[in-house]
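Internal tracking record. Fields below are filled automatically when a chain is submitted to the structure queue. Please do not edit lines marked as system-generated. If the sequence contains nonstandard residues, flag them in the REMARKS field before resubmitting.
Queue: standard
Priority: normal
Entity type: single polypeptide chain
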Amino acid sequence: MKIATRILSAVLLTTSIASAQALVTVNGKEISQKDVETALMNATQGRFNQVPPEKQAEFRKQVLEQLIGRELVYQDSKKTGIIKSKEFKQEYKKVQEILKKDIAIQIWKKKLAEKIKIADKDLKKYYDENKEEFREKESVHARHILLKAQDEADAIVKDLKSLKGDALKSKFIELAKAKSTGPSGPKGGDLGYFAQGQMVPEFNSKVFSMKVGTVSKPVKTQFGYHVIYLEDKREAKKLSFKEVKSFIEQRLKMEKFKVTMKSTMEKLQKKAVIK
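SYSTEM-GENERATED OUTPUT FOLLOWS
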């Protein structure tokens, strides 16, 4: 099997495999799903899920190619004796020293942070003094079909006009997958939940005025013409102390950690001999 075909097959497998199973082997050395996922998260700073769905497969393919390339070069470096060379050993020792220091610092900070405790009364006080911060805006769960021309959007609305309930939702999802030009098309036009003000004004104004289980007339925006289906609506509400307690605790701990870190560093500097 050609390498390009092997890579493509491996990329397709990553959409359904959720284990350490080998995707490919390079001269007997396995490259697993976990290896690819780790590399993807590192490359995107943990934001791979925010990469548009239509680009994720290509990104996976590129990362897998890079991992294969790295393994080939590493294996050749072993074969040609680079790992046993004086130059390699010198550079490796430098890296070991850097890692040794970095790991020690990370654990030192972790131990310092673990000592920080926030009393329940302080958490409640913060909640009572900042209640506006813990108000959830009204939000909706919507789907849409994005089209380039108004006559196409009008035809969609006409197709859906006689339907209601589950039949309407099912048909809408079917049409979104078949005809929507937006990135949410393959997911049946699903936009998930979003709050007031997150969408462009024309779309936002329309979707928040709709009734659950209904379809809109075409809405024109800078992206084209949208036919919207409103799946659910959540009213604005105040979050309880119990719901946000852990969030407040993490925030106050971080603030206290910064203060503790600063004072600790000042003490260490006073004790140190710095010339």
